[in-house]
Amino acid sequence: MFILGIESSCDDTSAAVSMNTVILSNVVSSQLIHKKYGGVVPELASRAHEKNIIPVVEQALKEAKIKMEDLNGIAFTKGPGLLGSLLVGTSFAKAAALALNKPLLDVHHMKAHILAHFIDQKEKNKPNFPFLCLTVSGGHTQIVLVKSHLEMEVIGKTIDDAAGEAFDKAAKIMGLEYPGGPLIDKYATNGDPEKFKFAKPKIADYNFSFSGLKTSFLYFIQKKIKENPNFISEEMPNLCASLQKTIVDILIEKIKKASTNLNINEIAIAGGVSANSALRKALEQLNKNHGKNVYIPDFEYCTDNAAMICISGYYLFQNKIFADQSVTCSARI
Fold this sequence. Notes:
This protein is of the alpha/beta class. The protein is 43% helix and 18% strand.
């Protein structure tokens, strides 16, 4: 079964082709224009998607060595995401499905991040059901109880900012370019994670909060700069390492709590922030020191990509869950 996947939820235009659960191609075109604005500009993102969508799909088909006529279905990201960006991918997928008379498969973006774990890869184990998945990105931070490929329940989520947003905003406070999360990770490798202490919010159940941490970090920086104008440049590695440790500790404490309370030792991670080296190491320690079976995706499947859309489309197709031409994308679903 050949599935074409289309991902356009934010600022990456991606197309992929899968054969069952094997990825034949996964092409991603990233938009660099947003760097100078310090964040994604929705109007610019949607215009770039319009420019990139056809070349990206053509490249994905070429690498997979198949033609559009060979496809069994077309999957696309329905949401959540930026509405203008989603519209481009949705419109292309609907038009292609109509022209080719192929089934249309609408995919939930965050569920697709989780299902990336079921891409067939050599020497890569897949989670056993049920498992807990910590989904962490620029826009979402959730703990999801995954009961099957299509049955998932959000049991914890952020009540304000997402972890990825906290990374990016803290980076901006320190004068780093967008996206700041990877830069914090880079600087942190040479820093002392114990040098500075930042408050961890006490939030009930399995929910998260990062707005207070972001605000306290801002006040801390402002205070230190008054004392020493060169504080940030002198302490950049230590600041990044300490901030990163605080965010990772918050995430790990919650997933450990959920794992213990629900007696589920299968733990996975998904989303863009799952590329963070400190988070990956902390999860590996859960495996080593606490007897948890931990599943960490390869870097190429952490950030937004169409391979995860293909896999989600495959399971929708297997269960005969199709969309029709009346389907619309949604920024929040």
